[in-house]
Hints:
single chain; five-stranded antiparallel beta sheet; 37 helices
Amino acid sequence: RALVHTRLLTSDPLMADVKDEEMDQVVAKEEGIQDGNGLQDLSPDQIQAFCDSTISLNLTPDNFHDNMLKCGRALFQKYGGPWNYLSEVLPSAEQIASFYVELETVFPRRADCEYTHWATLPNNEEDVFCLHLSDLSFDPSSSTKPAPFSSTCLELLDEFLTNDFITAGDELKIWKNRSQAAQPEGKAWTCYIKGAARSGTALMLAHMCMSRGINLQALRPSLWTSLCVVKCKLGSMVADLISVAMLNAQLSARGAIRKSHDVATWMAKLRTLKKANCDPSTILVKWNERCTAAQKLEGHKRMAVLHLLQMPDDFCDALLRHVSRWGSDNGCFLEETFSSKKLLLGYAPRTNKLWQGYLTLKADGLHLMLKTLIHEHDGKLPGNRRKFSTKEVENTALQAQLCCSLEEALMQDMGVSKTLITLQDEFMNGDHHLQTELQAAIAEKKPQWNFGDMDAVKAILKQHRAASETAAPDEAMSRNIAATQLEKEELQLIQKQIEHDCKVYELWRLKCEDREAALYHASLARKLDRQKQCRQAAQSMMDKTHQNWCFGIQILEKPESVFKDVNKIRASIAKNHRVPVNDIPVVLFANWSAPSLLKAESQRRQASSIGAIVNDSTAGLNFGIVLVPAVSAKKGLLWQEESKCRELLANCNVNCDSSFVMAYTCRNDLRETRNVIQNGRLLLPMDDDAYQNCWQMWRASCLFQKGLVADIVLPSVEDLVEIEDPSSDSVPSFSGPRHTPSRPERIFQIGQDAASKLLKAIVEGVTSKALLLVDLTVRSADLLKGFLAEKFQGDIPNGRDMYYLGFAETELEVDWSKEHVMDLLTGKFLDESWKSVLPLPAADAEETPMPSQPSLTVLQWSQKVKISGLSTVRTPDKIVRQWGSSPTSGAAFMEFLQGMRGKYALDLPMPTEDGSRKRDSHGQFTPGASSKKVAKSEPAFQEPASGNLFNISDLPTPFCYEAVTMEKHAHLVICPGNRAFIVNKSKSPVMLRAGTVMAGWFKGKWHVVRNGAGGDQGSADIPFHLESSKDCVLMGSSWTSLAQIISAKRVTSPADAIIGFHDLTDSPTAEDSKAFTLTKKGGAALYFRMDNVVIKEGEGTPLVPAQHLAGLVPYQTWDSWCTALAWSVRWPPSAQKGLTPIRPFVVMSVTTTIPPEKAVELSAKGQEVKPETTPKEEGVSAE
């Protein structure tokens, strides 16, 4: 009482005459605070003042424990726990950093202890190490549990104040979280497995003392000394969040203050793990597998946790605050309460439709139920508090939801102001009259129930009516508007309605006119989706985890790895077919026909792999095939290549005495130099018994019986593939007119037909559950393509039970082979040549009908007057008469209507006999201008301008270069100053048609410049840049537009209809529904640089091939009135590269005629040479 009186005098001198009964009230409240009661009646500011005054009044060693405990209890009441307290009083990063720095000063590191940091933590779980308070963290991410509960931390605070902060023997358990290793200045880096509550309480106690100037070293030296060092252990060497959470749960049952996880703690822990993409159900299964029987989370408790995870976040936070304050034992909810399905969002009792709408559980009802029960629990005396039964919570939830539904109905249906509705407040404060009415209504559930009959609702409606009557006179005054103002507003409304109808009509008209574009793009979208699913089907065949897997490609590594991978695949195949592994034969294939294409190390690995697999313990089933060398790097050394290959195989203990022949039908070109005979060897075990077993196994096959594979079609040079980087941003592999493979490459690529017939010769006549083909030389993927052809359309028995495993020398070959085969399969599935392994959508869909006529608000449809077969709209006569004759608004209305008629197809008159339309005096309209589609124009004929036409004798001399074009009478001449002329030396006119190739660039190289930096492009480097579908390119020998090329590609494979180094964006117009625009892709630009042209010097003008002439002058020269730079392009084998350039050419962009013995200068577009200045004069002066 004396302390209270002194404090009151300090805060206000006038309180000296305070009455005894008032003093008694204050003292009683403070006594309640000391007992843990009464804090809920104080505001946060009052709690803070109480703490400051309690600690500041004569703090001595004797009263230190009691006053600090009272202060801690008050702060826990205000903030809810130590972490919340520290987060509130240290809101900024600067304040937190200052706090940790002050910890180093007030609680210095002890000289008798060796402190550890994150980088020097031990590598075991037994060693004890020392940390400082500044190493401890209070960040929520430092623990898998929620913030420490205030009830637990209050007991810990009492423990510390009584027996000091002792961690020796009961060490904090932390774990190595690498994300915490880089904390600023090495502070607050710990992550807890066990000890978050103790560390948080210690940090809070330190802050309470430092912020209030308490000399803890003088008042409690032992406590101060214990806070200077924190003993810890590594609780686990694992570093994943789930394992840490499991270990934390196991340790929670140990100790006097710590307790096993309750439902709320599990809910908070799983919320944390769920944010880290962990599945709660899986975590609970793992926990139940590793914990004791008593600690298992099963039955109602497990269901309660899972149900709480479905609740709104703010509901869970409020429940955690309640459990934090009172603890799980003293809270108001049973652990199994929330296992009830009647407390889930969306629950509604079985009843009529009216009451289902009222009682369907929503978030607001759940919140009101929770607040009501917590408010009731907190308001009771300690002896009267108890846990609510599950039935009581369910009933309260229904009442709370009905209360919320009534409030919503009052606001929406009755228009009652939210400030007048107090049902939720009354319900939460325990108004038993309201609760009785709600309970009775829920029990009866009358179908014709009127909530206005409730007394609480009647009182609210009565207040609403009184407020409405008070506001009625003011509302009447506000409606007293002049008649002219009303008419003005009505005119504005009718104008907006007419304008709205016109816009709706115009939109409908455009939709109808663009229906072709809509149909095209809808069809394109379907084709894209179908191609995407075809590619997914193809990928499933290469996915080892998918049931459709049948082939794979990987890089060739050491023989041990190849042997291991092959046996692993065999085991998987045997498991799928439910047969022993030994019943799955392996046939190995190595194409050594062109050894110069293979690395020596790769051949050694292939030979070793063949020897290991052929001589495996399952010998008698496995054998190999090798194609012997047919070409050598140097002439005359073929015998030596063959000898080396046989020696290599013999060293691997392989019998290669048996041979076979692959015979092609004939050469398909007189210039063809490839052999029509390819020799091969059968590779069998060296052991006699294994050899006999293998021969008996395969002797019925055509390959073993005849040793001949005949009637093979020799692939043409055009069909030979080119191995290149398949990535979309890789440069083109060549700049020549076509890809010309080398002789070793032509011999190596045996073709798909040869591979198919070789497989038939192996398998026909042999009975086997399944077969594994191992291709050790994938490269051009011929064997894989033959394998797929036989699998989908071949007539081999059990052909669908064959499997393929390929090995390539480099990552480039692996990537290229996969993309090449994916493109092949996708194309075959797309055109239905092969049946897809996954279901595909239909290729065609029903045609989209014409858009229906929209509803109009004011205007009417005119079925008699049409434009391009589409109805128009008209203004009703009633509206024209009403507003057109108005004395105040008539002129304004007619002026507005005339503007609408001039802008839209509104009020069109009937057409006259000649098809024209005439307006009345109110306006005019020219129909069809925007609806007519412009026909696509062909390149026009253009005569040379007079300023560009010269006599040959007037050209500047000497000529720098001269070339004969494809039109033999038309020559290209380069004169001094890089001036280009087309010269007709004949005595008859020469017509040059649009698309004629006039000149070209010599072969060169490509390079890429990314983001405008790092490139070495020069002024002569030509950028590969296209702008839209109107641009023309050379596809083969045809000069055509990009629109035609892309449209044709989209018919078969729309996903591959892309252009290299460009992003394609569809931009349909009224004239062209297939139009698109092009932009640079990803900041990367592709440049072509021509190699140097060797020009033979001699007498007269140097003659240069026209295909090399263009690069001898700046490329901008050819962008003239009649010529243009055009790119020769091709579709590469890798679809994702898109349309790829080969090299640039100069083509005629218009059709023109050159008179006999005349020359035409290729001046820039729109420019002419002045007639009064002749080129010859300019040339002489330049010299």
